[in-house]
């Protein structure tokens, strides 16, 4: 990936912004960083972040080695400059840098190596779960995204992705293919939050 087995970049419409989506479709690291940023901000904001970050670094792509070696204070400034890349730019800058440092140490700086040779969905979700900033839910959502939109489909990937891997669902960013599906996913998330609040108040 985000090129699949045929080596072609994928067309995605997650950020709802052509240049940002083009980067997600051709850059494995951009997709991973977008997933990392996808919490407590709108999904489009999170997944447009990698493109804005690349621009601020003076590049047309993200490079794990460059980010890992970046001065931490200067890297934080890339996130905090207006418009900020996240609601919590300082902590997210640190997480992105930790993610890239991990990729350099464990995968020679190649984000796609996380999934390129994974034999099963269970193995892949375990690798994703080990990434800094990724918990079980985020790992399952990203696995579903890989399977549904990038044709990265090791054996048992849908099962390993849990409910997020279900065909025809609208639960997460993995199911966003345009404005309509974005609205459906957003509605699902709002319903889930409302149900959780109701459960807590009982």
From TrEMBL:
InterPro entries: DNA_glycosylase, HhH-GPD_base_excis, HhH-GPD_domain. Residues 33-134 form the HhH-GPD domain. This is HhH-GPD-type base excision DNA repair protein.
